[in-house]
TrEMBL record:
CDD domains: YlxS_C (cd01734). Residues 93-157 form the Ribosome maturation factor RimP C-terminal domain. The gene is rimP. Belongs to the RimP family. Keywords: Cytoplasm, Ribosome biogenesis. This is Ribosome maturation factor RimP. It is found in: Cytoplasm. GO terms for biological process: ribosomal small subunit assembly; translation.
Length: 159
């Protein structure tokens, strides 16, 4: 089964279960590493007014449910490891809603192609405006980076 179809299938299986448990699907990866395949499911709490975190109990509950459903239909031909986890403190921002949700937070941005001679930027996320990722750096300089040049945007971990 194609990777995209597996992602769609996992989303379809989990949709109502996650809603019932005040959770949401953050991302799904089906990847081969060395000789093994991994189905990685990242879950998050439905965002309210205060920040909430995923517990190991949340991950276990989703893992058991998804594992049972996948065993029933057996849609994946190859052997794989199922992993359910939180996207973490340094989560990658993937979807448009992630960029909206985390506006005002510090992010680390890695580029495919240098902009102003740099391939890494850190700053406060403004958002995506006119196909540009916009951040404010430590010198309060507004930086606009074409989205096509952005390899990865992650929340910065600040202690």
């Amino acid at each position: 089964m194609a990777k995209v179809k597996i992602k769609d299938l996992v989303e379809e299986i989990l949709n109502s279960f996650l809603m019932e448990n005040n959770l949401e699907l953050y991302n799904v990866e089906f990847v081969k590493e060395a000789k093994d395949w991994f189905l990685r499911v990242y879950i998050d709490k439905v965002q309210g007014t205060e920040e909430q975190y995923i517990s190991t109990d949340d991950c276990e509950k989703v893992s058991r449910f998804l594992s049972e459903k996948l065993d029933e239909t057996d849609p994946i031909e190859q052997n794989y490891y199922l992993e359910v986890s939180s996207p973490g403190m340094d989560r990658e921002l993937i979807k448009e809603k992630d960029f909206i949700r985390y506006a005002g937070k510090q992010v680390d941005v890695n580029l495919y192609q240098a902009v102003d001679g740099k391939k890494k930027f850190t700053g406060e996320l403004v958002g995506v405006v006119d196909d540009n990722l916009v951040i404010i750096d430590e010198k309060t300089k507004r930086i606009e980076i074409p989205v096509t040049k952005v390899a990865k945007t992650k929340l910065a971990v600040i202690f």
